Amino acid sequence: MTIILFFLLGACISVLSGFFGVGGGFILTPLLMLLGFSPIEAVTTSLLFTLGTSFSGITTHIRYKNILWKNGLILGVSGMASTQLARPFVIFLEKRGMDEWVIPIFYIMLLSYFALKMFKQGKKTTTFVEEPISPSLLKMIFIGAFAGFASTTLGVGGGFIIVPLSVSFLGFEPKKAIGTSLFTIFLIVPAAFLSYAFTVPINYKVSLLLVAGGLIGSSFGAKLTRYYENKEISLLLSGIYIATLISVIFKLIDLSLAGLILLGCFILYFFIRSIMKIRSFKAKVNESE
Asked: What stretches pass through the bilayer (predicted)?
């Protein structure tokens, strides 16, 4: 049962990863903490998982031409550099027993901000250009560095930071932000993971089960973006931030089961909605023929 559980968990989260352009760590890390993993165990396990899902999602987004390579490289290199600053910070927290509350609070702050940001973005009637002419180099370096620091601190790929900031401050359309984010994550995560690999015990059995499931789902999630408008993607991203945020709060007040149920309900809603979208799309295609 444990093998099946973690395999299916990896598959489900990787679908969300490919769809939203996040490595999946920002969902997996709080889920693992809700399941009883310590924060640092959850961080390292999520980083390894994120590496697999981001690679799988990239291959599909390449076909859809959703990756801005030059911009992604700048974001990725600046993120790789900042990962080395975050690891000593996390070890410092763990040694003093502060990781149990500092890491969740950091999550809550970031998720609150980005949930509001993407909700506002989804309500706008913004016209996006296919590729920004000259996004600010300074902004890209800052966003990449911030994502890299969060990647190592929270066990995420940084995509849940890169996607909304790329849309809001760099002018990327959501689908381009998603593809570029996955490429950036693939650069950042190895540096973040290696900073822990030789000093922190890692549950490789659980990690590999999650990755095995993740390799199946990420490409499918990326394909799902074809059936959604940019506005809908922004609103759904806001929704998953809110659901994850509330689940982390539940964890802090010892209501882990309620947090698991909430995240499960959102994931179920997403899959049902996506099935309906696919059926509607196919029905329109059949009618046009």
From this structure: 27-51, 72-89, 101-119, 140-165, 177-199, 240-272
Backbone angles phi, psi at 156, to 5 degrees: -120, 165
Residue appearing with tokens 């899959």? 271
Give residue for tokens 């959850």. 42
pLDDT (mean) for 198-208: 78
Helix axes 2-20, 256-288, angle to 10 degrees: 60
Q: Which pLDDT tens digit goes with each residue over 90-148?
A: 778 777 777 677 777 877 887 788 777 767 766 665 555 555 556 789 999 999 998 88
pTM, full prediction: 0.68
Question: Which of 68, 36, 28 has the alpha carbon at shortest distance from 52?
Answer: 28
Determine if residue 37 is left, alpha or beta; phi over 0 gives left, psi from -120 to 50 gives alpha, anything else beta: beta
CA–CA distance, 167 with 240 (Å, rounded to integer): 17
Based on its alpha-carbon atoms, the radius of gyration of the chain, rounded to whole angstroms, reads: 18
Reduced 3-state DSSP string for 238-253 = HHHHHHHHHHHHHHHC
The span from the CA of 247 to the CA of 27, in Å, is 10
DSSP letter, residue 225 = G
74 vs 122: CA distance, rounded Å: 26
In this structure, are residues 142 and 92 in contact, taking their beta carbons and an 8 Å threshold? no
Contacts with 61 (C-beta within 8 Å, 6 or more apart), sequence order: 67, 178, 179, 182, 183, 222
- 210 pLDDT band, cuts 50/70/90, is confident
